[in-house]
């Protein structure tokens, strides 16, 4: 298992260029964009709790506008997380500043799991590499696709 | 002797290469980079502090100090979650992050964690996102 995780982590770190790797299959992703409601604390509180997995990105999951936001999208994709809410802060300056204040975090992307702030790209990547993300997703009732991938490889 | 002349000539060539503007390698350390280094050193007494100005890979003017990656290796991080470590670094650099610094990739490790993989990672390529709103983090 850790071997497979390491391999995918290594693949991820090569940061494939071009739009080829960006597409999301079966997009259950709700791009909420400017429907995020401005960026006041109460609204943001409701927003991050509305869905199990919530991300604030520059751009959309289909077309991230920043390498770090793209990395978050790719990590979720690797784990087969399709049903998550993604908000594009470039569509809404109030949201862009509001979420930074709300999370007390100065940069985008930002990731929430079960209403709790997890961190940005570096932390999600680290959790992906050390296996914590699989465990955190399990707590949300989401089975990481990497587990199935590993099983397939082991049974060969 | 001939070899002496050769050495002198090589020496002056080397000097010219080093001084030529735009030569490969890291550029001069700017004031923001210097401030980041000084503040992290003072706040966290790191065993290792690696700092890279990655602004050149982004849609900002040459010589900018907007995008950085830092590896901070400190025993202060023992017993702290990743989130706590990152918050501590953000607090230490709050002035820079509220001002010129637009992106800061962080590797916050304990000395033991650093020894497992002692390298400053590479950031993903810029996708050009903030061109319209350049300068606002």
From TrEMBL, chain A:
<dbReference type="GO" id="GO:0051537">
    <property type="term" value="F:2 iron, 2 sulfur cluster binding"/>
</dbReference>
<dbReference type="GO" id="GO:0046872">
    <property type="term" value="F:metal ion binding"/>
</dbReference>
<keyword id="KW-0411">Iron-sulfur</keyword>
<dbReference type="GO" id="GO:0051604">
    <property type="term" value="P:protein maturation"/>
</dbReference>
<comment type="function">
    <text>Monothiol glutaredoxin involved in mitochondrial iron-sulfur (Fe/S) cluster transfer. Receives 2Fe/2S clusters from scaffold protein ISCU and mediates their transfer to apoproteins, to the 4Fe/FS cluster biosynthesis machinery, or export from mitochondrion. Required for normal regulation of hemoglobin synthesis by the iron-sulfur protein ACO1.</text>
</comment>
<dbReference type="InterPro" id="IPR002109">
    <property type="entry name" value="Glutaredoxin"/>
</dbReference>
<dbReference type="GO" id="GO:0005759">
    <property type="term" value="C:mitochondrial matrix"/>
</dbReference>
<dbReference type="InterPro" id="IPR033658">
    <property type="entry name" value="GRX_PICOT-like"/>
</dbReference>
<keyword id="KW-0408">Iron</keyword>
<keyword id="KW-0479">Metal-binding</keyword>
<protein>
    <recommendedName>
        <fullName>Glutaredoxin-related protein 5, mitochondrial</fullName>
    </recommendedName>
</protein>
<comment type="subunit">
    <text>Homodimer. Interacts with ISCU. Interacts with BOLA1.</text>
</comment>
<dbReference type="InterPro" id="IPR004480">
    <property type="entry name" value="Monothiol_GRX-rel"/>
</dbReference>
<keyword id="KW-0676">Redox-active center</keyword>
<feature type="domain" description="Glutaredoxin">
    <location>
        <begin position="53"/>
        <end position="118"/>
    </location>
</feature>
<dbReference type="GO" id="GO:1990229">
    <property type="term" value="C:iron-sulfur cluster assembly complex"/>
</dbReference>
<dbReference type="GO" id="GO:0044571">
    <property type="term" value="P:[2Fe-2S] cluster assembly"/>
</dbReference>
<keyword id="KW-0001">2Fe-2S</keyword>
<dbReference type="InterPro" id="IPR036249">
    <property type="entry name" value="Thioredoxin-like_sf"/>
</dbReference>
<dbReference type="Pfam" id="PF00462">
    <property type="entry name" value="Glutaredoxin"/>
</dbReference>
Automatic annotation (TrEMBL), chain B:
<comment type="function">
    <text>Acts as a mitochondrial iron-sulfur (Fe-S) cluster assembly factor that facilitates (Fe-S) cluster insertion into a subset of mitochondrial proteins. Probably acts together with the monothiol glutaredoxin GLRX5. May protect cells against oxidative stress.</text>
</comment>
<dbReference type="GO" id="GO:1990229">
    <property type="term" value="C:iron-sulfur cluster assembly complex"/>
</dbReference>
<comment type="similarity">
    <text>Belongs to the BolA/IbaG family.</text>
</comment>
<feature type="region of interest" description="Disordered">
    <location>
        <begin position="112"/>
        <end position="137"/>
    </location>
</feature>
<dbReference type="InterPro" id="IPR036065">
    <property type="entry name" value="BolA-like_sf"/>
</dbReference>
<protein>
    <recommendedName>
        <fullName>BolA-like protein 1</fullName>
    </recommendedName>
</protein>
<dbReference type="Pfam" id="PF01722">
    <property type="entry name" value="BolA"/>
</dbReference>
<dbReference type="InterPro" id="IPR002634">
    <property type="entry name" value="BolA"/>
</dbReference>
<comment type="subunit">
    <text>Interacts with GLRX5.</text>
</comment>
<dbReference type="InterPro" id="IPR050961">
    <property type="entry name" value="BolA/IbaG_stress_morph_reg"/>
</dbReference>
<dbReference type="GO" id="GO:0005739">
    <property type="term" value="C:mitochondrion"/>
</dbReference>
């Amino acid at each position: 298992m850790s071997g497979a995780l390491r391999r995918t982590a290594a693949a991820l770190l090569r940061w494939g260029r071009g739009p080829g790797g960006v597409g999301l299959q079966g997009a259950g992703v709700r791009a909420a964009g400017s429907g995020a409601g401005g960026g006041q604390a109460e609204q943001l509180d409701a927003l991050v709790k509305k869905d199990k997995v919530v991300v604030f990105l520059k751009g959309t999951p289909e077309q991230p506008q920043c390498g770090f936001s793209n990395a978050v999208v790719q990590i979720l994709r690797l784990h087969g997380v399709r049903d998550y809410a993604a908000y594009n802060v470039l569509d809404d300056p109030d949201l862009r500043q509001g979420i930074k204040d709300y999370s007390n975090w100065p940069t985008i992307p930002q990731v929430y799991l079960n209403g709790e702030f997890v961190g940005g790209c570096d932390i999600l990547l680290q959790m992906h590499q050390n296996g914590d993300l699989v465990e955190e997703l399990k707590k949300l009732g989401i089975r990481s696709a990497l587990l199935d991938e590993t099983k397939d490889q082991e049974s060969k | 002797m001939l070899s002496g002349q050769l050495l002198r000539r090589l020496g002056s060539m080397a000097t010219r290469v080093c001084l030529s503007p735009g030569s490969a390698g890291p550029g001069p350390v700017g004031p923001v980079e210097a401030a980041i280094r000084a503040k992290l050193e003072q706040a966290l007494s790191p065993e290792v502090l690696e700092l890279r100005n990655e602004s050149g890979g982004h849609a900002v003017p040459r010589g900018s100090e907007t995008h950085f990656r830092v590896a901070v290796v400190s025993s202060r991080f023992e017993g702290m979650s990743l989130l706590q470590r990152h918050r501590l670094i953000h607090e230490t650099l709050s002035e820079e992050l509220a001002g010129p610094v637009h992106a800061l990739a962080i590797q916050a490790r304990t000395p033991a964690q650093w020894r497992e993989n002692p390298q400053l990672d590479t950031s993903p390529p810029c996708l050009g996102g903030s061109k319209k709103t350049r300068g606002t983090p």
